[in-house]
Design goal:
Strand order of the largest sheet: 1-2
Function: This promotes the activity of RNA polymerase II.
CATH superfamily: HAD superfamily/HAD-like
Low-confidence stretches: 178-182
GO cellular component, one term: nucleus
Number of strands: 6
Distance between the termini: 40 Å
Mean pLDDT: 87
Pfam families: NIF
EC number: 3.1.3.16
Number of domains: 1
Largest sheet: 2 strands, antiparallel
InterPro entries: Fcp1, FCP1_dom, FCP1_euk, HAD-like_sf, HAD_sf
């Protein structure tokens, strides 16, 4: 929320209209937000879409999900209507709501605890803490990316690394790759 920005992060309010990776919404309302896209997200979505059908699965509400989707997928190219929110799954995330067999699902998420029944499908990505996390219980004080006026790496950041893993999974499991001698029933991303 804009009201929770640290003094060192408030410069971003003036940069919103100058940057393509930063948005302000609910301007003037009590719960006004800034959204900062993770570096490499556009490239990641474009490449991952060539290999996989993607879903958004968030513990956020539908309004929040739709706001973010307008920014990252305004034409509904990547996710279409495949959006699952806390309304459909309020306590945990489950592949029971995804219309595909779990042996073909790779989950990319920054929270493993919300996937208690599908950890074998999970490819955990590091949290993207561009802003100071006021809810964190970390005693260790380290500045946010925004406070340091820097950002994660495009080439060697978390999304780039996850994309390399996804490409490897796709090659091995779905595109023949080194496992082409296996029959279709034995191809399982969890391996």
């Amino acid at each position: 929320m804009v009201s929770e920005l640290t003094e060192e992060e408030k410069y971003l309010i003036g940069e919103v209209d100058l940057r393509e990776d930063l948005w302000r919404f609910n301007r003037g309302y009590s719960s006004e937000f800034l959204i900062k896209l993770r570096p490499f997200v556009c490239e990641f979505l474009k490449e991952a879409n060539k290999m996989f059908s993607m879903y958004v699965y968030t513990m956020g509400d539908r309004d929040y999900a739709n706001t973010v989707l307008k920014l990252i997928d305004p034409e509904k190219v990547y996710f279409g209507r495949r959006v699952i929110t806390r309304k459909e799954s309020p306590y945990i995330k489950t592949l029971d709501l995804v219309l595909v067999h779990e042996c073909g699902v790779v989950i990319v998420d920054d929270s493993s605890h919300v996937w208690p029944d599908h950890k074998r499908n999970l490819l955990e990505i590091t949290k993207y803490n561009y802003f100071r996390d006021k809810t964190s219980r970390d005693v260790d004080y380290s500045k946010s990316y925004a406070e340091e006026k820097r950002d994660g790496s495009q080439k060697d950041g978390s999304l780039a690394n996850v994309l390399r893993v996804l490409k490897d999974v796709y090659e091995r499991i779905f595109n023949g790759g080194i496992e082409k001698e296996l029959d279709v029933d034995s191809k399982d991303v969890r391996m």
